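Weekend entry, working from home. Most of the wet-lab plans are on hold until the incubator is repaired, so I used the time to fold the two sequences that have been sitting in the queue since the last round of cloning. Logging both here for the record. First:
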Amino acid sequence: MPDSISRRTLLGAALPFSLWGFQRNGPSAFTWKAALSGEAPPPASPLVLWYRRPAASWVEALPVGNGRLGAMCFGGIETERLQLNEETIWAGYPRDNNNPLALRNLPDVRRLLFEGKELEATALAEKTMLGLPSKVDSYQPLADLWIDMPQLDAVSGYRRSLDLDTAIAATEFTHNGARFLREVFVSAPDQAVVVCLTADQPGRISARIRFTRQQDALITGDPASPRTIILRGQLGEQGVRFEARLEADARGGTLRPEGNTLVVENAGELVLRLTAASSHNNRSPEAASSSTLVRARQPFDQLRQRHLTDHQIYFRRVSLELPANPVVAPLPTNERLARAKAGEADESLAALYFQYGRYLLLGSSRPGTLPANLQGVWNEHLSAPWNADYHTNINLQMNYWLSGAANLSECQLPLFNYMDSLVPPGSRTARIHYGARGWVVHHLSDIFGFTAPADGIWGVWPMGAAWLAQHPWDHYQFTQDRAFLQKRGYPLMKGAAEFILDFLVEAPAGTPAAGKLVTAPSHSPENRFRKPDGTVSMFTYAATMDIEICRDLLSNCIAASQVLDTDADFRRRCRQALERLPEIRISPRSGRLMEWIEDYDEPEPQHRHVSHMFGLHPSSQIDLFRTPALAAAARKTLDARGDKSTGWSTAWKLNFWARLQDPERAYKLWTMLITGCTLPNLFDTHPPFQIDGNFGGTAGIAEMLLQSHLGEIRLLPALPKAWHTGRVAGLRARGAFQLDIEWRQGTLAKAVITSQRGNTVRLRTARPVNVTAAGRVVKTRQEEGLTIFESSPNRTYELHPG
């Protein structure tokens, strides 16, 4: 996980927890001057974020996106700002960052670690194992689009909103008797940002439209079209070139260019279409943006309908209803958030947050795009917090925890495309740094294939690919798509495992793990330990998280090879290595899970990372029913770590407590997430903004309602008292099942399971259930607290309390 300290703090320096509130590159201010009067009514739909004032800063603006393009809508009156992003506008360029000194020094680094000389090993590794250079550059904004309407000096009935069901951001108000409406969406079918301004009186739309960018770009009119302005730029001599084109259509009135500005006067309707592209992957940004703009020259109503149809195919798969507070539910979103922070009950806010997470994933990770980065696709900074890059020591993975359960499996496909792109450079890094086969990624990457250790000693953590490889297997478990597993998933998993098999080394005699296969070097990401002699380090061997990741990957590879009936010899090698891994251990002095190979003290007991809990979630090596002793130790670990943390960490802890089936503790973490780690536009804040907290929080809410690891479907495993009555439809379970669940007064009222592939159903419920299909009783059996029955493909089964 990126943290504000590791980029600038020397090993062993003080790491005070108070800095969890560290801010960098704070959001820009946005000033509006129009006078406001009157109050607009609330929207009719509960799936709307809405406000009675324009956004005053970026973290109040509302996001729209199609995976590739994003816009933040401020809802200004006399001046509207749309802050724009295109997913490939990254500083930097492809280069070989591998360090030729790494492999020859690896044996000495390992020897020093095994001898307990961590600081000497640290010094050597920092000199010889970091990438050259050891950094990535930042994801950057594309531009700002401004719509100036200075005549709008005083308005009434103002409302700006984001409808999650339509993926349209709207701004509406009344000026001099006319009702104005501005709608913004980013179309996936037509790959364009679309803006429509209307008024219910003719001739009322007059505006000046312009682009700006802080640097590295020129803005001109299009000599071939008086309705078009163009922004062109390049990020350094070797960096990407990019272009954005904006075309305006006015119905009635006049439209003319004034230099690099378009001027509209007295129109009845104004439609703007914006396209953009870069030279990434050897594209021509000029050809791509212009040809896409030509295809987007359709009537606004057609563009809007195509956008709606496409979005709702995905978004409407899942619905969630939780108890609503009629006092606060109709209030603007910022007021609801403020009241929640003051302690007022607002359970339906959790349903809105859940659907917002699904909306954000759809907006930042669509098939054919790059995966969601640390900020999804939305970023206003030339130098973004933590570069808005791909952090692989939890953040990129957390972005996709919700995809299977929340019925958006297609949104995970960009992650697999990205993993495919990392295999060639990752294979080179594996060979040059470790003399290993397979492919490796360290704790961060970018769109140019950076796979070497980065930043500092904490970057010498070669477990990123191994953790990422959990996702193809999870995708298969949810979809049961054997063709995907064979062609894409298994090769990625096998390549990551080939590296691990070569990277693991036998711990020498005299060490706590003597004779076992261990990772060396190793970290428990970004955390440190204190030895009895007072030495503080983060560099070690066989950190618990590493071993859990290895166990997860090797076990999944064995299962995948069995499904595909292939690679018997590779499967045997995985089993042999698996048998020689150290076990997860419990501290005899604290009763907690041991984070390190020895029972060290912690300089920062409430560290935001709880990496050794990987085995509880997202893996399932620690389970309340299968490994109760480890589950009890996990609970003690979480108690000691504390609840208060950064945004993404709070979301992870929510998932932990859901897996431990502690509904009230999970609910406490949800409450802390929404009240302490959520910005006015419901973005998660580390701080500053990181989108993984949104995605992790959404996944956590799903885990509270439905779990499906270890071959079991667990209904309402962590349902808190506050969510006493509700329903959810469309959640997915591993095994290719879809579920609708209703509950009343905290107990299951009814569930419907649709079996896509005809797999065996293994249900764990708080009370016995009866199963029927088409009105007929289904034969079940009881086994170790489970209700088990055989299903048929594409058949639906109803569950009722027994």
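Second, folded right after the first finished:
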Amino acid sequence: MNYLIKPLLRSMCTAWLATGVSNQTLAAIETASSAATLALPAQGASEVVSTGRFSLIAWLKPDIGDSSDCEQSVMNVLHLENGLSLHLLADGSVQGTILGFSSDSHTKMSLSATTVPLIMRGSDPSWVLIGLCFNAEDNILSIWAITEQGHLESAHAIDATFALGEVGLMLTIGAYGPLHAMEGVYGLIALRDHIIDASDVLDLWLHRRHHGPFSFTNASTGGSLTGPDGCVWMTNHAMTTRPISAESGGEPHDWAAIVGKPVTRYNTHIYDTTQEEGASFRVVRPVASTKDFVYRSPYDGNCVGPLFVENVFFVRDAPNIGSTLPTPHFVSRQSPKARFLATKIPPGAGLIRVLVSGNSRALEESDGSATGIGNFSHGFLWNNLHRTAGVLNRPARLNPGLWFGFDGSEHGPHIEGHVNKLVTTDFSRFWTNSHRTLSIGPGEGVRLIEGASYTLRCRPQGLIAHDQPLFVQAHLLRFPGANPVQWTSNKHTRQGGPGIQVSEPTTILLDTQMWSHALDFSAGDQVPSASRIILAGDNSSTLVVGDACYAGDGAISVIANITFDGISTLIDFEHPLSVVPIDGTLLRFGPWGYETINYLWPGLCESDENTWRGLKLAAIEGGDNGGVVLFSFDAWRPNVDGFVFGVAGWRGMGYEQHIKRSFTHVTSAWASQLSVDVWLMTFATQLSHPSWMNTYTEQARTGSGDVEILWLGDVEHPSSWDTELWHWWALTQATANDVAASTVLLHCTLGGQLDLFGDGIRSDVLHLTQRGNQRLAMLWTESLLEAALPGPVASPADLNGDGTVDVSDLLILLTQWGQCDNANDCPADFNSDGTVDVTDLLIMLSQWG
């Protein structure tokens, strides 16, 4: 075996290192003190070490300070009970030790190999790759270390009398016994079930992937690394907020590993193939103790060169796609309102309602951490918090949930009486915004049974201020048999609780019943299926195609066809009724539609502690006991320049299912109710071909008129659906659909699946953390500078590009009044004399209108 670094390999590594790699990054966990410690269960680690044929590979970024006086000569990196230890010595040497006993005397014995000093005290912390290998057949221990400063060192130890003992089941990273922790950052640490040599370590170093000790294979070039197949145990490899818990303890939100937050007993990721669920990359396992470790990302940095070349040490993988996407990765179209997402909103622009649609990644209200939001819309929102004036289409739900303005992590909506979810009823086919895969349709909301009430309030956040007006809306369904709704404005100190009624009660009739009929099977009525009802006699002139038929118990459908066969009236429905009517069931017929409650809250007094303002809705007596169907709420501060963000879609279902499982015309109808200005359509792939995004676009335009629509592609999405095709579709079909498009799939700050885990972007395999959503929103926002073009400009004085020179443009001019330090920041300097003054004002007035 080749245990020594050949001069040729040394010169290759040194030459590569001389190119200079920035060391501005942090690793997966970082010490907050020299007492930082993490004691992990290590059955898999113990098992592979006990075989006497294994390798340890670790990324480290030591910080050993600049003091010449060593407080401690040995600092612990890793210690496996009765098995092995890895230490950093005060002089910058790396030491590996195998623990065991003498086969001759059966006394305790260790086998140590120590490199020459290679980490300079007081130097800027830089990455070190450690490789350790033990082969009991030869009783040879080898250790290799490579640093960014160009050092590549090795050391070896051999003793024929050495024998392994019984290896313990606890592995400690950082401080152990009297030894302080190696201060700095600890990257991925992996134990493999085979031996390695110097060339393998060098290959890993040149590969420069943080996940390389787990994923890298060089077998095709004669190396020993076998990728995931040879990795038995690993830690510091992933940060997820919705991991798999292997009896980690605590509550689900305690399992969340978040960049910048502590490593805890519950959120430590440990890959262990000897345990149940061991081969999953995102398992958190219980640990014995932890102290003073904080999660970091090994990928923080910006792109400075070609794709996947960054000013950070580690290189990201390209996403796993089978072909090259069309370039450029955007398609431009005039979208001046969408462009405001990437530029400052000019005075006079007003409120811009931005809707983000898709499947679960567009709808998740939590990333699993109990503190982070899990949808794309909130990525935009938190990146634009100081410019956000409200929320659009916040679903009416029973659970507390996290939602801008309507946040209620501790208290859910205040509910009195009997309130049901809509997801398992036919009412869900009338709206959008379901986060449940098993919903009958794409909508979610609640149904208030007679006597029940539902109160939801919006708190001050972003541009929403309690001393300023707040416009609140609630969207309900008008249908045959509905109860009347009585509403009042309501304020409180929080989300839950009855609150304080402010306005006088207002009653709205929601019942649209035009005709009713009680099924009488003895008279010839029939129900051959949930999709067809036959009524004796000729009722064709009484019924209307497109009207609704409510059969009670949440069963409602829309009439698709009416036929009189000379004896009976055949009524066919668009979708089967969820509950098949029986003899005696009262059928209620009439049109369906939406009712929107509007209320303008005045600003509150400074001393008023009831800063949460909203609406209370109650189902009162009347109608025909159908209840009150409530879909969603909006709230925004009026008369400001800002964004109102909202979401639409269906968790677990693509656009095809959204359209096919809804009633006809509802997508256009609810789009009209929401009055969307900018519609960001992200991919909704499940059970759907991307061509259905075309249909969804058409229906959105039918409802929202001059809405600006953009198609946005996001990160690698492992699933049984061809998501690569969706990115290709967006870039090749956008022009034909008259939309702007952009995909950030290949952006260098994202990378492949393993990079997304290591960067804290994934909450689980399919969904994203709040960090991930903000990263995506930032990248999409940057792409809008190219994809969303300004509107046609009537004249240079039309500063906001709306085709008219008016008071909005005048306000922009006044904000730029005076000397121009930068001509690019002074578009109101029409005569280019370096100053915005009365001359420019006169030019604007000459072009007024």
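Plan for Monday: verify the second prediction. Residues 770-787 form the longest helix (18 residues).
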